[in-house]
Amino acid sequence: SHLDFEEFDSDREEAIHRALDAGVKVIINVGASLDSSRKAVELAHKYKSVFAAVSVHPHDAQNVDDSVLYEIDSLAGDPRVVAIGETGLDFYRNLSARDVQERVFSAFIEIARKHNKPLIVHSRDSTAEAIEFIAKNRLPAGGVFHCFSSSVENAKRLFSLGFLISVAGNITFSNAEKLRFKISQLPLENLMLETDCPYLAPHPFRGRRCEPLYIPLIATQIAQLFNTTVEIVAEVTTRNALKLFRISEDLL
0.85 exceeded by the pTM? Predict the structure, then answer.
């Protein structure tokens, strides 16, 4: 989630409580910039169910200098920070030059290695390239490729590298038949769920602001794909997330 974004300025606390009331146990609030990462940590200290990830989105890699890396590195040592992200590569929009994105991605991989924390990876039109970075820089703590829409082959390679993939609200879209088929070919034991709010609100809320409350809608779609129950999907994907982010039940 990106609950620190301005889209939640009017009802941030209410959105968190709506999610908890809907059965959501944990929210990972993912930083997208230095300021966003600071706010993510603040939220994680304010709400018991919220944990933080810190990094800078590849769109803004051009803004990352040594001072930014130093502060992200400092934030990464906070016990409420459970991952380094959202980092990665975006060769769809290319808002930062590719070589700059690659340099910054490498720097955040090193921060994740230093703190032994998992990565949350953004990889739009760049999944194969991002996998190469991961393969060359093995991370014992693993990570997750968020909002995954690449090939079954790429997913399986990620699994072999100790990474999971995460499924967002776009799995419910009427035009997402190919994505649903690909996800159905993968083990439930390697999946996580996300909303990526305020983006990608699932059907029937597509086009509106997304929020963590909608996770059960995504779980319902996954249950249909795997011919199982929502309860089993919730149990498996929650267990996967708690294990990846090293969040023990006594913290909840």
Answer: yes
pLDDT, tens digit (0-9, with 9 covering 90-100), for 150-165: 999 999 999 999 999 9
For residue 244, give the nearest of 140, 168, 149 by alpha carbon.
140
Opening angle at CA 32, ends 48 and 96, nearest 5: 170
Task: Count CA atoms closer than 13 A to 158's CA, side-chain side.
Answer: 30
Measured CA to CA, the distance from residue 221 to residue 250 in angstroms comes to 30
Q: 193: which 2 tokens?
A: 């769920």
Angle at 207 between CA 201 and CA 210, to 5 degrees: 30
Model confidence at 67, in pLDDT bands (50, 70, 90)? very high
